[in-house]
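so my prof wants the structure for this chain in the tokens format not the other one, which i didnt know existed until like an hour ago. anyway here's the sequence
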Amino acid sequence: MDLATLIGLLLGFGALVLSVSLEGGHLSAFINVPAAVLVFGGTLGATLVCFPLAQVRQLPAIARHALLPPALDRARAINLMVGFAQKARREGILVLEEDVAHADNPLLQLGVQLAVDGTPQDVMREILETEVEAMAERHKQGEALFSTMGGFAPTLGIIGTVMGLVHMLGTLNDPQGMGPAIASAFLATLYGVALANLVLLPLAHKLRRRSDEEVVFSQMLVEGILAIQSGDGPRTVEAKMRAFLSPVQKASARVRER
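here's what i got, hopefully its the right format
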């Protein structure tokens, strides 16, 4: 679980609830079912116009990816590849086929399999980089889905507010009810803005960051695989992969030959 995402969502909505309490308001006054139906249903409907149904159905899985990111331990990956390099130098690259079968990274499995099959290095690089680009494009689609919803939600909220005001102005028989009616109308805008800025747009930014991290991690694996296929020694493999670590990660990582 990504605690930063979870804490951020709880903190955002918690601040919203706390501000209502500090002003002496009651949460029941902020419940408006018709406004919620318009904002949530309208946002989803507009999104369906923009994206294929199959992609919109992936919303829960995409959101889960933001909350439950894959493990991307770069130091551990470098240790693993250094071990592969040592074993390949001692026994030949063919012995890695059995080891990589238990790896949980599809790109690593593909790269080592290509190396074992004797694929030329330029062809290997092209195939692996294409895999990384395709992965980034898939992630970009998920980010675009949440960004689009974040753009529609406030607009649907404004539409709901306008509809509420029109309804209120059309029934001016009870002037005393104008205040509550206006307040109720503006709840649609509140729902739309809150949904966009506390949930949808932050998740879109988190998905973009996740994608960037996975792309860099995958590029690091590609360089390690190509170095092993070229017959580079463990220290060279380690040096090429450590280039993808930040200064802080380089200082804290304990990468050593086994």
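also thought this was worth mentioning. The longest helix spans residues 178-229.
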